[in-house]
Amino acid sequence: MEEELEYIEPARIRTLITTYCDFLPVEVQLEGETVNKRESPWRKSPRDLSDNDYIELYRYLYPFQGDPLLWVHLNTDYPYNLQGILYFPKFTGRADWEKGEIKLYCNNVFVSDSIKEVVPRYLLPLRGVIDSPDIPLNVSRSALQTDRRVRSIGGFVAKKVADRLKQLQRDEPKRYAEIWESLAPFIKIGAMEDDKFAEQVADLVLFGTTAAAMEGEPAEGQSLDPIPAENGKAFTTLAGYRSRLSSDNDKRILYCTDEAGQAGPLALWKGQGAEVLLADTFIDTQFIPWLEYRHEELKFQRVDSELDDSLQEKESELADADGKDSSEKLRELFKGALANDKVTIQVQALKGDNAPAALILLPEQMRRINDMGALMEQRLPGLPDHHVLLVNRKHPLVEGLLKLSAGSVITGAGGGASPSQQLAEDLTRHVYEMARLAVGGLDPNQLAGFQQRSGDLMGKLMERSL
């Protein structure tokens, strides 16, 4: 009996009443006070509700969760009876994609706070209410999932959500762009899981872009693209991006998933006037291959996968008496100093005064395999063992490194390296580790070793200069 004493406590009774008797037309009192809400806003016409009415319902159902981004009012009486209001919350990355947060009612009577058998999985993190007497409640979950009417209800909800997103994107493109990062998980995951939904939202997918946002209002018949958003950001659609490509590169889509980690190659592409899409690190690992499958004519290329001729200087090199040019000498120097056959050494003269001394390049398909493996193992993708080190022979550090190596001699009975040769090799490894550091390719132990070696290297350089 002791475990049942809580049910005579006013606070517990109040909680039960608000859970199971809210929105009933019957007044329920406790200690002379009406406890339950009696009006259900989702049964009213949208014309009779103000924005504040929708927001107040959300705040009541989900207290201390902030305000919703937008909402969708559901209302149909054929071929089934269904009313409801669904809200898009501000996405924080911690949404419940398994159970969901939509509350299920039947004729205003609370049934469940889990509706995963009714709405598609990609809509589960939405919040709000669905009220329908036509959802069978006395059957098993497996039977509910295969019920034709329930599947039809799920399709209806998905279409209404897509229609609301289309309306917002059409009527308020700037507002749509500003909340895109919270909408993106629903739209992208939904498109990948539901072909019909993918068709409905095909023109709604946005990417951040390095292009300048369009100023002012577009001309008649022209869409606002790139779309300006807060903090100086700009967004574009895939079609808008393609419309600005040159005819010789209209099938290549350049993208970046980490503006800090891919800053070097990103700056090179931007320096040559290329527009780059800014993609999401996690979802787009799956979404971009899905887009390529849908658009077989397109090739998505991350900025650090390869550099084309437009980023390289066209200049001839002079060979020495042994027939070796500077690129070949540098390739031999780096290959010998690194002693790692998994690292492919490339030497190019990169355009731009701010081009780095070296870059780590990750061939597109190889990197995607690595990213997919990391996703399956639920870990962050690291630097693959096999990668490309691109050395910029025009960089002053690399030019000085080549001169230092050329001026060194072999000394000692054992044929050991001279101090200059040893210093050249230390600098070579430092250039490589700096390139790894830029892409987050050093784990904590490697980072500690890098700091120690950097200090030792600075000491050697100071000794030479004094």
Can you characterise this structure?
This protein is of the alpha+beta class. It has 4 domains: 2-34, no CATH class; 41-162, 2-Layer Sandwich (Ribosomal Protein S5, domain 2), CATH 3.30.230; 170-309, Rossmann fold; 327-465, Four Helix Bundle (Hemerythrin (Met), subunit A) (Up-down Bundle), CATH 1.20.120. The chain has helices spanning 10-20, 51-61, 141-146, 148-171, 173-178, 180-193, 195-200, 238-243, 263-271, 284-294, 326-338, 364-376, 396-406, 419-438, 444-465, and strands spanning 29-30, 33-34, 70-76, 82-88, 101-106, 109-112, 127-131, 207-209, 227-228, 234-236, 252-256, 277-278, 299-302, 343-348, 358-361, 387-392, 410-411, 416-417. The strands form 5 sheets. It has a 6-stranded mixed beta sheet. A 5-stranded mixed beta sheet has the order 3-4-7-5-6, with helices on both faces. A 3-stranded mixed beta sheet has the order 14-16-15, with helices on one face. Strand 3 (70-76) and strand 4 (82-88) form a beta hairpin. The N and C termini lie far apart (88 Å). The model has no long low-confidence stretch (mean pLDDT 87).
Entry keywords:
15 helices, 466 residues, Ribosomal Protein S5, domain 2, six-stranded mixed β-sheet
